[in-house]
Amino acid sequence: MAISFYTSFFFFLHILLTTSTAVASSAEAEALVRWMNSLSSPPAFLDSWFVTNTTSLSTWTGIRCNNGGFIFEIRLTGQNLNDTLDKLLFSSFPNLTSFNLSGNGLRGSILPGIGDLSGITFLDLRNNPLDQAIPPQIGNRTHLQYISFFNNNIPGEVPYQICMLQKVQHLDFGSNFLETPDWSKFPSFPLLQHLSFYYNSLTLGFPGLLTNLKSLLLYKNSFSGSIPQEIGNLRNLSFLDLGQNQFSGEIPPTISRLTNLQRLNHYCNFLNGTIPPAVGDLMFLEILDLSNNQLRGQVPESISSLRNLTKLSMFANKLSGILPQDLGKNSPRLTNISFSNNSFYGELPPGLCSGFALDYFTANKNRFSGPLPECLKNCSRLRRVRLEDNQFSRNISEAFGVTQNLRGQVTPKWGQLE
């Protein structure tokens, strides 16, 4: 009798769960088909989406289901849907964890209904022309770890409710029309590793306590004032790009604490003072771009010790003096060097191109003199060289070996070796 009872109970439970799953799958299917039919020109690749095919939604294009048959991922990237999200009922997807509709020409708004996706961890809407403000309801989705709204037309401020996303690791708001929010409403993001506000309209301040950041991309904004000394607290940074802003004052010496830094871009600002010798402590540095500022004084000797350097750009400053004679000697991967439009004098360092990897070298509009480095003869990848408005001795064409990549007018002696 007991066995019969338990058998009946579990049979009933199985029927109940199966029915619940079928009903939920049907609701998910209907929501997708309803949205598809709202598109002005439903693409042919969505032909697999039809409500009579609900037994295995994972066979639908761009859809993945969990073991229970519920949708956990919607991924339709680069399909040029060219419509809106208006008719997509997000509440129909209680198990959705990943939503990726990047590169689809979606316009209109990021719907407040996104706040109904209780389990969402990954949200990617980059490369669309969405042109409405970020809904504050996004702060309700506290499991979010990845958000990208890169390259849209989103205006207004980032809602302070986003500070509730304490698990977020990647925030990309680059290339929009965002304005400066009230940063005092933004506490720490303890797990945040990537933060980009590239190409927006931000002007003032910045949230603090971002100590786990690895990438901070703020270029092409209107930030002004001094670079804060606290930048040195971001000890995990690998990429720091503050280019094309209106920063002024000196490069803070606390930058020496960023011992994991690989790329340091401060180009196109109004920075003055000297280049801090502490830059030479950044042993993993690959790119150093300080061009188009008002920096003065000499290039510090310590930069000669940067063994991983691939790009060194200092053009259009007020730098002067003789370059460190060991510059380039310990940097065999250097491919891009620019000293143009400064007041340097003396001879170029003999080991400047010791790795023979140079493909871009400009030193025009200085007061360099003497012969060019012998190592240039072995830089077969060179494609651009500018040396005019200096005081070099000898015919400069004689310093170069035969190269297939250089373009422009040369003298008849080009390529002749001594």
Structural classification: mainly beta
Give the beta-strand count: 25
* Assembly state (oligomeric): single chain
Order of helices and strands: HEEEEEEEEEEEEEEEEEEEEEEEEE
Strand order of the largest sheet: 1-2-3-4-5-7-9-10-12-14-16-18-20-22-24
Count of separate DSSP helical elements: 1
Q: Which spans of ≥5 residues are poorly predicted at pLDDT below 50?
A: 8-23, 408-418
User: What fraction, in percent, of the residue positions are helical?
Assistant: under 10%
Radius of gyration: 29 Å
Inertia-based shape: elongated
The profile of the biggest β sheet is: 15 strands, mixed
Mean pLDDT: 89
Terminal Cα span: 106 Å
Q: Any overview of this molecule?
A:
The chain has one helix at 2-38, and strands at 63-65, 71-75, 98-100, 122-124, 146-148, 155-157, 170-172, 177-179, 194-196, 215-217, 224-226, 239-241, 246-249, 263-265, 270-271, 287-289, 296-297, 311-313, 318-321, 336-338, 343-346, 360-362, 367-370, 384-386, 391-392. The protein is mainly β. The longest helix has 37 residues, at 2-38.
Keywords:
single chain; 418 residues; mainly beta; 15-stranded mixed beta sheet; 1 helix; 25 strands; 9% helix; 19% strand; elongated
Quick structural summary:
The chain contains one helix and 25 strands.
